[in-house]
Amino acid sequence: MGMAARAGAVIADPEFVQFHPTAIATGADPAPLATEALRGEGAILVNDRGERFMPAIHPDAELAPRDIVARANFRQIQAGRRVFLDTREVLGAAILTRFPTVSKYCRDAGIDPVAEMIPVTPAAHFHMGGVKVDERGRSSLPGLWVCGEASCTGLHGANRLASNSLLEAVVYGARIAEDIGGLEPAGQLAPFKGIEWDEAEGNRAEEVLRNSLAVQQLRGIMTNLVGVERHREGLQQALRDIAVLEAQAEQVTTAYLNMTTSATMVAAAALKRTESRGGHFRTDFPEPDPSWEHHTQMTLGEALSIRAAAR
Ligand SMILES: Cc1cc2nc3c(=O)[nH]c(=O)nc-3n(C[C@H](O)[C@H](O)[C@H](O)COP(=O)(O)OP(=O)(O)OC[C@H]3O[C@@H](n4cnc5c(N)ncnc54)[C@H](O)[C@@H]3O)c2cc1C
Is the keyword Coiled coil in the record (predicted)? Predict the structure, then answer.
């Protein structure tokens, strides 16, 4: 999305980011997930005082929509509590055979899921926004088709129902292949010589970038100011901080610029949408506003104007 935005593509709904309510809080990066099927089985959320807090928040308690559960967990953690998923009564030892992946994640972190509760935290999970495409996967830039999570087809709203993302990727991948098939390449293309790609080297470069101070700082800004809950001052601060990081980064790699660009798009659109809906929650505008009941579009140019005005 960052690359396309820098090339001038129209981006749709960048403010809508979905948080998974129950990533396992072991400090692992990326955090492994405690699947929502566990709550479907009847697992409950409790804090470190043993209080079950979801029934007071939503009639469906732990089965409330993803964003509501994520926000409830976030607020517990903000208030200094720790949050746990308790599967012991409802699953007991059956968690080992019925949820082997979660059990393995727990064992890797030194947690016995049969006897202990699983520490959890919300984590960024899916971006409903992305490069705006039409029903053939065509973006606003001639010659650029986009599918998968980088795109915004309009299929998702302010939230995403589980598994719709993979279905969308498959459907649009096929549509794009069909649309491109048989097209003559524009102009003369140099003969393709193949690329020497060293996967281990690529992975190492990604690891170095991910662990760099600049990326850690960017992630901190996004988590604290553009995350589960947002408000005007925080979003303006985030935009100022992202601009400073971008200007200060000693060696601005393209990959880092793509990250700060994406961050700018998300924060600027979140500042513009003065209401709460789905994955986007503003503490200063906590209710949905019918006048905002629509998809949004933004170019990097507009996002940079909003960023400049936040100074
Ligand atoms: C933990 C987890 C569980 C999920 N579970 C589900 C689920 O059950 N059902 C569901 O529908 N969705 C699920 N999702 C969402 C779904 O997995 C993603 O939306 C989907 O995988 C996105 O596919 P993609 O091909 O668009 O992107 P990705 O799978 O992210 O693939 C992008 C690829 O591009 C590569 N890449 C990045 N930058 C460059 C570059 N500059 N040059 C070359 N290559 C590059 C990356 O290495 C990567 O291989 C889950 C997501 C997470 C994080």
Answer: yes
